[in-house]
Each structure stands twice: as structure tokens, then as C-alpha cells.
Design goal:
By secondary structure, this protein is an alpha/beta fold. The chain contains 12 helices and 13 strands.
């Protein structure tokens, strides 16, 4: 069964690290739903965190993940990201600076991988929703033809992002993305951005299904995730920058990302070889909701404006 609910595991006993002391949730394969509890963890697992590769669909994922509640404060993604950068810099300073230099150079050469460029190309004018928007960095980059909205699980980051979004007529809701998406009106957004978000989401397919629902017909989705199939991961093994325990819970290859997007009913419109080069640690995909709209946009806008749940 696809999208099986997670089951809460028992709380670990004393003598463990703070991360180990958090209650975790058991996950079946997030792509096909297979229960792989009896399968051996991958060698790149970092105990107590267990990476599994589903034998049915080859999806790689963290089987014992943290629940949403832990991600709101104790393991807010922004704090985890900042600490991850510090750890990387201290562990391999030369390699860290070399990768940073390469990324800056690559961004200058391949300007297509800029949020504003992708939004302008794949999002019609109107409301754009950024999932896992953090402090609103990407909302600032949206073209003037788009109204910024966001969902962020971290309380402090959501409050800051909401203040900025409100200046352009938008808002940011605080909470987990799946719960809030379920409460948004159908067809209420012209674009949805998932930059460095889907690898953190314990329910990625249900989230994509909700995205397909809240998108207006012709609306676009832009996704950026780490590329598990990249050469760097194969060469560096456990030292690959894409391994982040416990906040990265999904590890996509081009095949598994494309399959999940299609299962959500979205039509892939850009995912060429240049968007998932094996030399790159990340990959980008654009999709659309392809159909003829029968929604009354005025009623959708009115419903959206009336929603005030969990607004910071």
C-alpha cells in the first residue's frame, strides 16, 4: 500500500545521545510502500539511523525517522544545516572549500539553476507556495508577478518569513507541510517550489499528491533534491555531503524522483540529462498539472484569504 502510516517506536533508554533519545517513527518505502524492516541496512548508514534500499523499486530512504514534532524545535532544519556546514568544514577543510568554490563557479555558468529563472519559466503569474521555506530566502527571489506564500515547520524561521511575505501580499504558515496542505483550497496556487525540501519529508508521495490538488490547472512544480546517483556519492561514500542524519530521510536517483512525481499525477516537463548530471550533487525537475480548469478562481482566492490557521 502506497503511503502507509508510520508507527511510533518506543522511546530509547538513557546513556544515548540527544538524537538517539528522540522517539522515532518506522517508515515503509515512501515510493512503493513495501515494508523492508527485515532487510539489512546499507553500509553507509550511521547508527542508530538505518538507510534501506527497497528491493522492489530501488528507493533509498531512512527507515527510522524523527517525527514532525521533533523537527519544529529540537531538530529544526536550519539549525541542522548550520551545524552540518560547521562539521564538514572542520572535518575536511580543504575539500569543503573546494566544493564551495566549485558550486559558486557552476552557478555563474549555469544560471538556469536560479529560483527566479525557474519560477518565471514554469510558474504562471499568481500565488507561489514554497514548502520548507525557512526564513524566506527563496520568497525574496520570486519575480514581482508572483505572490509569495510558504509553509515552514520551524517556529522562529516561519515567523521571520511571514513578516517578509506579508509585505508582498502573501503569508507563511507554521507547521508540517502535509497537514497544512490538506487544509488549503483546491487549485489555489499557480506554482509550488520544493527546493531542498523533499529529501526531508517523511511523507513525500502524499505531499506531492496534495500539491497536485492545490495547484491550479497549468500550474507548475519545481523540485531540487540531492542526487543519490552522483559520482561524488559513489566515490566519497559516507563522507558524501548529501548524507545528513537524521534530517535527510529520502535519497532520490533520477529514476525514483521521476517515478514519484508521475505517481502523484504530475506531468514532467523538464528533467533532461543536464538537470541531473552525475557530476552534480543535486538535481532539478519541473512538472505541471495538465488539465482544463473548471474551478472558480474568485471563490478559491476568497477561501485562501480567510485561512488563518497557524499563521505566525
Amino acid at each position: 500500500m502506497i503511503g502507509c502510516p508510520v508507527a511510533t517506536l518506543s522511546q530509547p533508554s538513557g546513556g544515548e545521545s540527544p538524537q538517539q533519545q528522540e522517539a522515532t517513527t518506522f517508515r515503509s518505502c515512501p515510493l512503493c510502500g513495501c515494508n523492508n524492516q527485515l532487510a539489512a541496512p546499507l553500509a553507509t548508514s550511521l547508527p542508530p539511523w538505518e538507510l534501506k534500499e527497497c528491493p522492489a523499486c530501488q528507493m533509498v530512504y531512512l527507515e527510522n525517522a524523527l517525527p514532525y514534532q521533533a523537527l519544529e524545535e529540537s531538530f529544526a532544519w536550519q539549525h541542522q544545516l548550520d551545524q552540518h556546514r560547521i562539521d564538514q568544514q572542520q572535518a575536511t577543510p580543504q575539500s569543503y572549500h573546494l566544493r564551495r568554490t566549485w558550486r559558486r563557479w557552476r552557478k555563474q555558468i549555469f544560471r538556469r539553476k536560479q529560483v527566479a529563472d525557474w519560477a518565471e519559466q514554469f510558474f504562471p503569474s499568481g500565488k507561489v507556495l514554497d514548502l520548507g521555506c525557512g526564513r524566506g530566502k527563496n520568497l525574496h527571489k520570486l519575480p514581482g508577478s508572483h505572490i509569495p506564500f510558504g509553509i515552514e515547520i520551524g517556529k522562529d524561521a516561519a515567523q521571520q518569513a511571514n513578516q517578509d511575505a506579508a509585505q508582498r501580499g502573501g503569508k507563511v504558515w507554521q507547521g508540517d507541510c502535509l497537514s497544512i496542505l490538506k487544509r488549503l483550497p483546491e487549485g489555489s496556487f499557480q506554482g509550488v517550489l520544493l527546493q531542498s525540501y523533499l529529501e526531508h519529508e517523511i511523507h513525500p508521495l502524499p505531499v506531492l499528491l496534495e500539491i497536485a490538488r492545490v495547484l491550479s490547472y497549468g500550474g507548475g512544480v519545481v523540485i531540487k533534491v540531492p542526487n543519490y546517483d552522483c559520482w561524488s556519492r559513489k566515490i566519497r561514500g559516507q563522507k558524501w555531503c548529501g548524507f545528513r542524519f537524521p534530517d535527510h530521510v529520502n535519497y532520490f536517483t533520477p529514476t525514483t524522483l521521476s517515478e514519484m512525481v508521475q505517481r502523484a499525477g504530475l506531468s514532467q516537463v523538464r528533467f533532461g540529462w543536464v538537470d541531473h548530471l552525475p557530476t552534480s550533487d543535486t538535481m532539478w525537475l519541473a512538472a505541471r498539472k495538465m488539465a482544463v480548469s473548471i474551478s472558480d478562481q474568485e471563490s478559491v482566492n476568497s477561501a485562501l484569504e480567510s485561512i488563518n490557521f497557524s499563521t505566525c
